[in-house]
Amino acid sequence: MEELSSMVDNNTIMDLGKCIECGAKETDGFSCYEMFQFPLIWEHNDPELYALHFWLVSCYMIQHPSNYTEEGYKLMVSLFTEAYDNEWPAQYILRKNRDLNTKIDKITNPLPNDKRKRIYRS
């Protein structure tokens, strides 16, 4: 089992009530990462929502590239674009995603959150 200190930390950095990466404003004191958790929970209780899981996660991922390796980020953007352009069904996207993920070393950024390079958005 991984030690807690080595687990992925995808929290966002908020500055003056805005995410420095995606530019989203806090909502009722919640950061964009905290808001992202709500639909993740909802989809586990609703198969129709869960069918959209790939789109939910990839949209968040594309807006927060510091959480992922350069290779993992490029893979996600490419998969998202191909899936959208070709109107792939959810099951095919998930299978393709699993296949592609086996071809790269690491998807998530191993650096601690406060050491990651970020592109600031206003």
Describe this structure in words.
- This protein is mainly alpha-helical and 122 residues long.
- The protein has a domain at 36-115.
- Helices cover 47% and strands 3% of the residues.
- The protein has 5 helices and 2 strands.
- The protein has helices spanning 32-44, 47-50, 53-63, 70-86, 90-101, and strands at residues 14-15, 18-19.
- Strands 1-2 form a two-stranded antiparallel sheet.
- Helix 3 (53-63) packs across helix 4 and helix 4 runs antiparallel to helix 5 (90-101).
- The radius of gyration is 15 Å and the shape is globular.
- It starts with 13 loop residues before the first strand and ends in a 21-residue tail after the last helix.
- This is DUF5946 family protein.
Which labels suit this protein?
mainly alpha, 2 strands, 47% helix, DUF5946 family protein, DUF5946
Please count the helical segments. 5
Largest sheet: 2 strands, antiparallel
**Which sequence of strands runs across the widest sheet?**
1-2
Quantity of strands, as a count: 2
Structural class: mainly alpha
The SSE string, one letter per element, is EEHHHHH
Low-confidence stretches: 1-7
Q: What fraction of the residues are assigned to beta strands by DSSP?
A: under 5%
Helix content: 40-55%
Radius of gyration: 15 Å
| Gross geometry | globular
Q: Roughly how many Å apart are the termini?
A: 39 Å
For the residues shown, what is the average pLDDT? 85
What's the oligomerization state?
Answer: single chain
Pfam family, one: DUF5946
Protein name: DUF5946 family protein
Organism: Oceanobacillus luteolus
